[in-house]
Design brief:
Blueprint: E1 4-8, H1 11-22, E2 27-31, H2 34-38, E3 46-50, H3 55-62, E4 69-73, H4 79-92, E5 95-98, E6 116-119, H5 122-130, E7 135-138, H6 145-148, H7 154-157, E8 158-162, H8 168-175, E9 183-184, H9 191-201, E10 203-209, H10 217-227, E11 230-234, H11 245-256, H12 264-268, E12 305-310, H13 321-329, E13 332-335, H14 337-340, E14 350-352, H15 356-365, E15 371-376, H16 386-393, E16 398-402, H17 407-415, E17 423-427, H18 434-440, E18 443-448, H19 453-463, E19 470-475, E20 483-488, H20 489-492, E21 501-506, H21 534-544, E22 551-555, H22 561-569, E23 574-579, H23 582-594, E24 600-604, E25 619-622, H24 629-639, E26 644-649, H25 652-664, E27 667-675, E28 678-683, E29 686-691, E30 695-702, H26 704-731
Parallel strand pairs: 1-2, 1-4, 2-3, 4-5, 6-11, 7-8, 7-10, 8-9, 10-11, 12-15, 12-16, 13-14, 13-15, 17-18, 22-23, 22-25, 23-24, 25-26
Antiparallel strand pairs: 18-21, 19-20, 19-21, 26-30, 27-30, 28-29
Helix pairs in contact: 1-11, 3-4, 9-10
């Protein structure tokens, strides 16, 4: 039993049948050959008939119980077959739908392609070629080769290309064609393959039918133009009325209740990218054998397939053979506009987008495309959107991946330098601490974004005392206009550089900073501003328990010694140094540059007001509160109920105020230590110890959520006790 009968003589027919079967609609597919049947796989909802039918036999299939409609997806040149299908539907009273293949008539009309000459029929092409000289590559299949024998010296001039069907070669030899001129191959044929055949045969002419995008017509036009050959295009024999593949799928979705998801963008505006005007581009063969119908590897499964492909730098020549093969076999190609350029010669349906939610929504809204690829720059494992895409697409789709050549591999290869010792980072669409990395590592590679991204990065390096480091810049790698520039950061800061770029920063003096906290006090620029001493700073930073990407407030930052060490310990994080004295703020700026700590922002003002508009902190150090300790802590806990806080107290009043806060505010893991330290000083030939101010170091973690949970548990226990007492009273 089947509800839909599909006569599948084109790529579009097979894809439509698989779309229905995948949605659980029983379908019978009729193809003319065993070869056509071999390209599809039967399933519970998909049956295949592989024999040529006359009108009566077609009517027999159409009259089957349960058959509701017939889709005619035969080849545009199988005009007689379409007539028989239409008549059989009229006799049986079944609904008939004609699925049309997309036309490429605009390419051969109006002089838009000077290499193309339109012909109404094979016979007209034969008459035209009689008046010409030069070899001819014929790509119209084996069916009409007898007509070309009228051309003088046809055996010498003509190079027929056709499918390796049984008996085809014998028929050509019987007609008088030379065996060495016969090209028996199965497509698809790319631009490169068509161009190579034209060059190999020395053909000045190529004859083709107007087989549409799916039949490889565009590739032939491009190949002929590049090879300097003229193209004779035999137009379609009849002008038909019917529906495009997209329209047929929409009709079927409505008829059989197949869910199709549409994004708001699709509802309100035309889809970005190039909308296909044909049905899905799965490759097939069918009732009319011609080399315009390409072959597809792989078998149909119930779950749609999406392959994430790393294309390398962007040039098509930079793609792996596997990646290009996936694109050639895909029904649709998705990705950012720049990525799509490398596959423009394939002339596939495309959707230009880079956001994972937009890509997923488009795939959901176009279920007819059983096999899609999403193009991503570089390698899918190096600062790529593949990770998020995989999580979003699975388990709705069968997701496959193809690695590409990453920019760091390509660029370091160009520079003839190794990359196993390179610190990798990205400033493309995200923030990063390039100065800290350049100060710490001898080699730093980074992706760069923005119109003047390279120049701005070099200016930042120069501003933080790294103007003499060597910077190599790669611009539009792999493209014909690729540039590689080398200079110091200071030299390149003066140029206008950016766009699609990468940089390699080399600093032979890197790696001199301490691995842990413990910078000597004398290393800081101090003047007369108070500073947290090295011994206390070491303990305080240990209690803070910073992470690589922490966001810390240093309240009452003074000279910025704690800010500097925190910033160096959290190179991927950020430190906000809050200080009310202008002199101290200026000193922090100087120390920032001295220690290459670009991930510090000096905030001039008094806490807590100065903290209000800052990003949410993960950690806070309070070295001075100006009497506002409770207000500061309340604000910190509102911003982040689980914040980690360390407070230094010298005055006993500050200690008392802090203890009151610890008791009243929702905090846990409270730890209080008293530190008394002394330093030696030389007095003649003796060393005498000089004591420093004793310090109380208070540390804790916010526990607002924990307190709330404890309170709720107490309330639940009280309610349970009340219920037990009530039940006991009822029993008594």
């Amino acid at each position: 039993m089947y509800k839909v009968l599909v006569f599948a003589g084109t790529i579009e027919g097979r894809s439509t049948a698989e779309y229905l079967a995948g949605a659980g609609v029983p379908v019978l597919v009729s193809v003319a050959t065993e070869y056509g049947a071999s390209l599809m796989k039967e399933s519970d909802c998909l049956q295949i008939s592989s024999r040529r039918l006359d009108e009566a036999e077609m009517a027999g299939l159409i009259q089957a119980d349960g058959c509701e409609l017939v889709i005619d997806a035969t080849h545009p040149y199988a005009a007689e077959v379409s007539v028989n299908i239409r008549r059989a539907c009229e006799k049986t009273g079944k609904e008939y739908i004609r699925l049309l293949r997309a036309s490429e008539e605009t390419l051969v009309s109006g002089g838009q392609e000077s290499c193309c000459i339109a012909m109404d029929s094979v016979q007209e092409a034969v008459e035209y070629l009689k008046q010409t000289e030069g070899r001819v590559l014929i790509t119209t299949g084996s069916k009409d080769l007898a007509a070309y024998t009228e051309i003088p010296d046809f055996a010498e001039r003509l190079y027929p290309r056709f499918l390796p069907a049984p008996g085809a070669v014998e028929k050509c030899l019987e007609l008088g064609y030379r065996q060495k001129n016969l090209i028996c191959m199965q497509g698809p044929f790319s631009v490169e393959m068509n161009r190579a055949m034209l060059k190999q045969t020395g053909a000045s002419w190529m004859v083709t039918k107007e087989s549409g995008k799916a039949g490889g017509f565009v590739d032939k036009v491009k190949a002929a133009r590049e090879a300097g050959a003229r193209l004779l295009v035999i137009g379609r024999p009849v002008v038909e009325n019917g529906l495009s593949g997209e329209q047929v799928c929409a009709l079927l979705a409505e008829r059989f209740g197949i869910e199709q998801v549409c994004t708001e963008q699709e509802k309100e505006a035309p889809q970005s990218g190039k909308l296909p005007d044909t049905a899905p581009r799965q490759k097939t063969d069918g009732m009319l054998q011609t080399d315009d119908m390409p072959q597809s590897e792989g078998e149909f499964t119930g779950k749609r397939q999406v392959t994430l492909i790393g294309i390398g730098m962007g040039s098509a020549s930079n793609m792996t053979i596997e990646a290009m093969k996936d694109c050639e076999e895909a029904d649709a190609i998705l990705g950012a506009s720049r990525m799509l350029e490398c596959c423009s010669h394939l002339d596939k349906p495309v959707f230009a987008a880079y956001k994972d939610e937009e890509l997923k929504a488009w795939l959901d809204a176009h279920p007819a495309y059983r096999k899609a690829v999403i193009l991503l720059s570089g390698d899918i494992g190096f600062y790529s959107g593949a990770k998020k895409l995989i999580g979003r697409l699975e388990p709705d789709y069968e997701v496959k991946t193809r690695s590409g050549i990453s920019s760091v591999v390509y660029f370091c290869g160009k520079l003839k330098t190794s990359w196993e010792d390179v610190k990798l980072m990205s400033l493309h669409g995200k923030s990063g601490n390039l100065t800290a990395a350049a100060a710490r590592y001898k080699k730093v590679f980074s992706l760069i974004g923005g119109k003047n991204g390279v120049s701005e990065a070099c200016r930042m390096l120069t501003e933080y005392g790294l103007g003499n480091v060597k910077v190599s810049v790669g611009i539009r790698l792999s493209y014909p206009d690729e540039q590689i520039l080398v200079g110091t950061a200071q030299e390149l800061a003066e140029k206008s550089l950016g766009g699609l770029s990468v940089i390699l920063v080399e600093n032979p003096e890197a790696g001199q900073m301490p691995v842990t906290h413990g910078i000597e006090d004398d290393a800081f620029i101090r003047a007369k501003v108070p500073m947290t001493k090295s011994e206390v700073r070491s303990i305080s930073l240990s209690k803070l328990q910073l992470h690589d990407d922490s966001v810390m407030y240093d309240v009452g930052a003074g000279t910025g010694s704690v800010s500097i060490e925190a910033a160096l310990q959290s190179p991927e994080g950020y430190v906000y140094a809050i200080e009310k004295k202008e002199e101290a703020c200026a000193l922090i700026e100087e120390n920032k540059r001295k220690f290459h700590a670009a991930n510090i922002e000096v905030v001039s003002g008094l806490a807590p007001e100065a903290l209000t508009d800052l990003p949410v902190p993960t950690h806070a150090f309070i070295g001075g509160s100006s009497g506002n300790m409770k207000e500061i802590l309340e604000l910190l806990l509102r911003k982040n109920p689980r914040i980690r806080v360390v407070i230094n107290c010298i005055a006993l009043e500050s200690v008392s105020e802090t203890l009151d806060c610890v008791k009243s505010l929702p905090v846990c893991d409270v730890d209080i230590i008293h530190v008394s330290s002394a330093r030696s000083r030389e007095l003649g030939r003796y060393h005498m110890m000089t004591g420093m101010n004793p310090i109380y170091i208070v540390s804790f973690t916010g526990a607002a959520e924990t307190k709330a949970e404890e309170n709720k548990a107490v309330e639940n226990k009280a309610a349970a006790d009340t219920e037990i007492k009530r039940e006991k009273g009822a029993v008594q």
